[in-house]
Amino acid sequence: MISLPEGQSPRFDLGLDEAEKEFARKWMVSKGIANTEQLVAVCPGSKMTSKLWPVERYVAVAQKLAEQFDATIISFGSAAERSVCEQVVGSVKQSHNAAGELTVRQSAAVLDHCKMYLGNDTGTMHLAAAQSVPCVALFSARDWPGRWYPNGTANVILRQVVDCEGCMLETCDKGNLCLDLITEQAAVLAAAQVLADRR
Q: Between 20 and 30 A from 129 (CA), which of 86, 122, 149, 197?
């Protein structure tokens, strides 16, 4: 076991090189994103429908974070998730849709500039955590608690216990009940606390 200095969180260093970091800076400039902006990464998609929190709730939370914290929203995802990401960014003036535009490592380099991640249980969530970006992660109850939680101590996990917990279904037969029980208000409060802490 490798011990860390007291109070220090582990970092799964991806070893981003200067070229990758420079790419992120240039990508941000190309989108008109200033270094001073409070960037919030939002990831509303997933390959598994049983992991999807309702997109209209992401829209509402993104709008509130933009209003309350002057946040700039960057939506991440695959090319297949571009349309669902567009629903989120299309509702916020200060926003950008990166879905399908970036490689995994390029995404990590851009995430490194974000104040927080808000989204489903995805690979992007783990990329954010690897860059020590605090995550407000919305988890279904399809798997057991803690199994795929993001690394780090600054994360907030939103997850509801239901009778069918541990179902392992990729497509829920109960209308994503466990995720539906996670309220928009809970996500706003968690995200607001993370952003306040980062200030």
A: 86
Element containing residue 158 per DSSP (H, E)? strand 156-159
Per-residue pLDDT of the chain (199 residues; tens, 9 = 90+): 455 567 665 556 788 999 999 999 999 999 999 988 999 999 999 999 999 999 999 999 999 999 999 999 999 999 999 999 999 999 999 999 999 999 999 999 999 999 999 999 999 999 999 999 999 999 999 998 888 999 988 999 999 999 999 999 999 999 999 999 999 999 999 999 999 987 7
Q: For residue 129, which phi and psi values (nearest 5 degrees)? A: -60, -35
Is residue 56 domain-resident? yes
d(CA 9, CA 196): 19
C-beta separation of 164 from 145 below 8 A = no
Strands 71-75 and 38-43 come out as parallel
CATH number of the domain at 66, please: 3.40.50.2000
Amino acid of residue 91: S
Gap between the Cα atoms of 191 and 155, Å rounded: 10
For residue 111, what are the domain limits? 20-198
pTM to 2 decimal places:
0.90
Is residue 1 assigned to a domain?
Answer: no
State the Cα–Cα distance between residues 17 and 37, nearest whole angstrom.
Answer: 23
Give the helix/strand (H/E) hosting 64. Answer: helix 55-69
